[in-house]
Amino acid sequence: PATCMITPPLYYLYRYRTSIKTRLKEIESNISLVKVVRNKNANLNVNRVTCMELDPSFLSANSDWNMISLGTYLSQLEPASSSSSETKNKSGFNHLFLRKELEIVIGEFLLKTLGTTYGAAFLPMLGATSVAASIAGLSNKLSKFLAKCILSKDDDDAATDDTFDPLNLDLSLMELVSFVNLHQKAVTPDNGSVPSPLEYLSRGENAAGDLAYDLGDGQFPNTFHLEKDFDKYITMMENRILEKEGKYDPDDRSFPPSTPINERLLPGLHIGKGDLKCTHTKREGIEHRLLCVLLNKLCHNYYKLSCDEPMEDCFKVVCNGKECVFPEELIQGLEDTGHTVQVCPRVIISNFGMQFCVKEEDGSFTTIPTSVFLRTGIERSSDSKPAYFAAPHGGMDVNISGPLIGKGTNRPAWLQFYVSIGGLTCFHPDEDQDAPWAAKTSLADIYSREDAVRAIRMCAIVSITFNRIATEFNLPFGGYGILGMCNDSSTLIDFALRGQTNSYPLLSTGRYLNHIVSYLIKYKKELSSSGKSVVESGSKVVEPVINDILCLIKSTSQLPSDLHISPATLIGMSSRYEKSYGGSIFESTADAKSILREMADTAREYLE
After folding, report:
1. CB 46 within 8 A of CB 3
2. Could you tell me the CA-to-CA distances from 85 to 33, 79, 145, 152 in Å, in that order?
3. pTM reported for the whole predicted model
4. pLDDT tens-place string over residues 550-567
5. Measuring CA to CA, which of 10, 61, 309, 506 is 20 to 30 A from 394?
6. Is residue 388 within 8 Å of residue 456, measured between CB atoms?
C-alpha cells in the first residue's frame, strides 16, 4: 500500500524534473547566443552614430593613425551563433537578455567613470535626484541602442534609420546651465575638514593627495630658490613616487593600461588610451606640476596683498638673483634667464574621461575618438535640423622652454590656466595624449611679451576672484559649471586684452557674472585702501593690478553669452564656433558649421 501511495508523486516529480532539465538546457542554449563577436568584414554603414561619425577629411588627413568611429565598431558586432536562423528564432530572447546585461555593464562603467566628478556635477540635471538614478536612466537608453545595433542584422523589427546619438544629451546650453544652477541651489556640499579653494591655492595644487608638493605641514619652503631647488624637489618627488608605486621611469610616456569593459558583450572594447603616447615624459609632467605650484602660490600673494598682510610673510621665488613675489615676475625672470615663454588661449575637444579603444588580435589598439555633444540652440530654418557642438576644454596656454624649464628635446613645458572641476581656478599641468584628435586650436595669435605679462597677472586676479567666490559661497567643485566652464575663466582675460574673443561656448550666467564683477570691484577697493603692504610693494606693482582689474570688470560686463542666441548675436556666435572648431573631427561639427553659416548669412542680409 505504501508503494501505491508514493508512486504517483514520484511519477510527477520525475516528469517535473525532466521538464526542468529541458528548460534549463533551453535557457543555457539561449544564453550562449547572448555572446557578441566582432566581425571586421561586416557592413560598416549599418549603425551610424550620427554625432560620433568621424569627418572624412579628418580621416583622410590622418590615414596613418589607427582609429575608427563608434558607429563603425558597433556595426562590426553581431551575436555569436551557429546559424542566423537560430538567432532569428530567438531574437526576442536575445534582445531582452542582451539589453539587460548591457544596462548593468554600462551603468557600472558610467558610475565608475563619471560618478564622483562629472556625474555629480552634471548628471542630476537629467531629472533624477541622485547620480546613481541619473546613470541608471542613461544606461537604460544606451543599452537599448546597443542591443539594437548588435541584433539589427538578424532582427527585422530593429530599425536602422532612427539611430539616436547615445552621447548626445539633447540639451541646449540654456537647459544645461539652468539645471546646473538648480542643482547648486538644492545641494550645498558638506566640505567638513576639506581645505577651501583659497587654502588649496596657497598650497599651489589640490589634486595630488599624499603626493602633493605642499602637504600643508609647513615643510615646503617659504622662499624657493629656483636654480638651486627646482631639480632638488623634482628628484624628491620622483623618489616619493617610486616609494609609493614601486616603479618609476622618468622617460616613460605611456598611459596606464587600458581595461576591457566587458569582453563577452563588447568584444575588444577598452576604456583608456591604448598604446598612445603622452606628449611629455613622466619627469616632464612632474616638472610642470612643480612650476604650477610655484605660480599658484605666487597668485595667492595677491590675496594676501588685499588683506594687507606684510610682504615679508609672502611666498617668494628667487630667480636669477631676484625675489619674485607675483607670478608675472617669475615669468619675466624666466625670460631674463634665456627662456622662451609663449602665452595664448587654446582649446581642444574633451571626452570627459570616456576614452575608448579596441584591442586587436595582434595586441595593438585602435582608437575610437569620442566627445559629449549638446545642442547649440540653433536649428536650420529649412528643415529644423539642429546644430550640435562637441564639449570643449579650453584655457590660457603657457608654454615655456629654456635652460631650466622645458629643457627636454620633445616639447616645451605645457601649463594652462582655467577653472577645474577639481575645485580650483589656477595654473594646471597640461600634458595630454599625442594624437591628432587631441590637437589644440589657438584662439588668438601668440601674445606679445607685454600682453603675456599682463595675461599672467590677470590669471592671478581671476584666480583670486573665482576662488574667493567659491570659498565664501561654498560652491560645489570650486564653482565649476556655475562661475563658468574651463574656457570661460580664460576668455575673460583674452577679452580684456584684445577686446574680442574667438571662444565658444561661453556659459557664465548673469547671476554669477554679477558676483564676479562685484568681487573685482571689491578687490580693487581693497588694494586702493590697503596700507603697509601696498607701500612695501610699491606703486609699480599695485597700479598695473588696478588697471588690469578695471579691464577685467569691463570684459566681464561685455562678454558674449551663448546661453541665449538671438538673430543679432548669431553672427558673432557663428564666427566664434568656426574658429573654436578649426578642424572638424566629427561630421556633426562640419554639419553645424554649415548650418550656422547659413543662418548667419540670413541674419546679415536683414540686420547689417
Report:
1. no
2. 12, 12, 23, 14
3. 0.85
4. 999 999 999 888 888 888
5. 61
6. no
